[in-house]
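ok so I'm stuck.
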Amino acid sequence: MLVNRSGWTLYYGDAEAHLNIARRILDSRTPGYDQIGTSWLPLPHLLTLALIGNDSLWRTGLAGAIPSSVCFALAGAFLFAAIRRATRSSAAAFAALGLFALNPNLLYLQATPMTEPVFLAGLMAVLYFSVLFRDTQSLWAVTGAAIASLPASLARYEGWFLVPFVTIYFVFVAKRRRLRAILIFGLIASLAPLYWLAHNWWLYSNPLEFYNGPYSAKAINQRSGPYPGKEDWRKAWLFFRTVVQMCSGWGVLIVAAAGLVGVFLKRVFWPVLVTALPAVFYLWSMYAGGAAIYVPQLWYNSYYNTRYGLSALPLLAVAGACTTLLASRRWRALLAIAAISIGITPWLIDRKPDNWICWKESQINSEGRRAWTHEAAQLLASQYQRGAGIFTSFGDLTGILREAAIPLRDALHDGNEPAWMAATTRPNLFLHEEWAVAFSGDAVATAVQRATFKTGPRYHLEQTIIIKSAPVIEIYKRD
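replied:
not stuck anymore, here's the structure
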């Protein structure tokens, strides 16, 4: 509630986008399944559908934040259950939960419409059911792990990275019915990646559209140019370990380092391995050109994708929890409290949000966007008449409609084919909207100007919004 009352819920541009993608599935000129899109996996948007139809929850961002918070709670519950079963220690489970759930960077993300909490719920459920299978050899536990992998794989692509490793785990852990266990997990877990490949093939005629299409992370990074860490393991490691330290805090790192002794003494290898996989995925992605990370200490005082450092938090929480295993059961509860206390000490010493790198990134990188969104929304809220139509592009500009309480179905945007293509290529014939909201020089601004200079509808520039270090916003009205 603090995040929402402070207006932080939609600081992240991605949070705004996730919220509006869910909204356009229901509220659009062309509502329906194809509004899910391609680059982002669909589950977070689908979870938001139950609430996104409520205008108040859409405008405040709570429609996306509430499912995120529920998934965060599920992640914590499954982590506690998994570590208690893996270590036979409630104290260790309590320590893992505290180190994980009291991290302010994660607490901020779980209060926003971001995808990380949804993935973490799936990851922790996979961990729990895989540990349960080790103890029970039940095929129901295999089925549970397979079903749990589906939300992980439908929320973030590191979920795909888990599947082969968990399959290999069942090969080694199964004492009987090994082939059946492998087939159950492999067949069910592979459904999510196969579905997304089919989705992209059906809608975009390219099963890898999410990977190499114009809106993919790979294409965005290519347009931005080389970044530190690409094809350079040393720099990739430098940037990744730096952002992990900033996201987790030095307290958790100290506790996790001490807990490695307990990991080896008590052989808590599988929980450590499976929670390390997301971090390995991002480190490898940085090297391969799929994930850029900037932190102010290392790259021109800029922030970008700092939340990727949270991928190591589950690993650090599990390792830190194993410090409790170094003592007899009588003293483990005290060790758990000590571990959590050390873990949260950095955040208690300096309690300002500026110390939370994920919040700080969202705050700094959104200053310009929030300013022009508010100014444009004020104009449209006072002058726009419902149903008149707005010609715009989907993306950051959609936040203007949300803040101005204008339904998305009033807008013609690039998700509304074929009308969008007709309006941009032949605006003199097919552009009928009364208003247009554009970034200067984009396809919308170009189409409006072409229509005006030809025999089509004439538009005049109603307002230009210029904010320092932000794109110029142009608002047109039809004469």
